[in-house]
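so my prof wants the structure for this chain in the tokens format not the other one, which i didnt know existed until like an hour ago. anyway here's the sequence
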Amino acid sequence: MKRRDKAERIGKILDELYPEPPIPLDHRDPFTLLVSVMLSAQTTDKKVNEVTPALFAEASNPKAMAALPVERILGHIRTVGLAPTKAKNLKRMAEQLLERHGGKVPADLDALEQLAGVGHKTASVVMCQAFGQPAFPVDTHIHRLAARWGLSDGKSVVKTEADLKKVFPEDTWNRRHLQIIYFGREHCPARGHDLESCPICSWTASKKRIAEESRRD
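here's what i got, hopefully its the right format
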């Protein structure tokens, strides 16, 4: 089966399972979303949602975040992964928004990527979830499943993003990346996966592919 045909069938299954996939990170606006996405690296969304209420009670905008000492920010986010680095980046990112963008989160991928602690994936998430611009952020779930399903060779996250953009229509990208994340969490674990019971892997993935993933883990 050609990749595009496979993607079309996968898309139909995902639309049935998750017709309106919610954004998993709690936020109020583009700035609080940006902060939450920055915090989510190597940390679960659940953990991020646990620490952000207190942080946002003190600093829900760039001016307030920039005014907080790094130690104060760290105190709020200490339980998330890489907290010391993230605390420094959050303060500097807020300062840069004030210096460069009038205290607003820019709706521009390149401008976002120039902010402290903001990589391509984080910028892509903000573009699609905060501003509704077509983007296909690739996290570990999506990277793994794209390879498992034969939609990409899995050589790099950059290659996976490009391959997925080719096989899925642009007007589906924003919901499709969320759908794949939810599917990976609920139906398609990295280890101990039952191919036959999976709505997608049962016809897309091979036992050889799963064995290769297990050896890498």
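also thought this was worth mentioning. DSSP finds 13 helices and no strands in the chain.
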